[in-house]
Design a protein that fits this description.
The protein is of the alpha+beta class and 138 residues long. 51% of the residues lie in helices and 16% in strands. The protein has five helices and three strands, in the order ααβββααα.
């Protein structure tokens, strides 16, 4: 976690957002871990028998402050790939509707995140959702 914070802070300084002190960076890391643990305990629900699930996302500004959050139920879906894709698209729509500028998407499902970066047409079961997400970031 601290390596990620250091990397992020270096990028922020490189792109002109100013230098952050070490104490603020460590405090941010502790708060981030606490929020992450809470999210893991309560945010994602996946009941495969009833095909009910839910996802949530959190949007932070360039200084790490929470700018928005949303939790969304997804009925009829139990496949993790089909759960993650709509969550990213909903977060992108939310960001667009709130007029947020540069948006960086992070997630714990690397295969899902990588699909948005591919140029080729995605013919998988989530291809249409991927295309919608790509249109949102253009």
């Amino acid at each position: 976690m601290l390596a990620w914070i250091i990397w992020t802070r270096c990028n922020q300084e490189l792109h002109g957002y100013g230098r952050k002190d070490v104490i603020r960076s460590v405090q941010f890391a502790f708060n981030y871990i606490k929020e992450y643990k809470l999210a893991q305990e309560s945010q994602v629900v996946n009941n495969k028998e009833e095909k009910r699930s839910g996802v949530g996302f959190l949007i932070r500004g360039h200084e790490g402050k929470v700018m928005g959050a949303m939790a969304v139920p997804l009925d009829g879906v139990s496949d993790p790939l089909l759960i993650e894709m709509p969550a990213i698209v909903k977060a992108l729509k939310f960001s667009r509707d709130m007029s947020f500028g540069n948006v960086y998407v992070e997630g714990d499902a690397l295969g899902v995140i990588n699909r948005f970066g591919k140029v080729d047409l995605d013919l998988s079961s989530v291809g249409m959702v991927v295309d919608e997400g790509k249109r949102l970031v253009q």
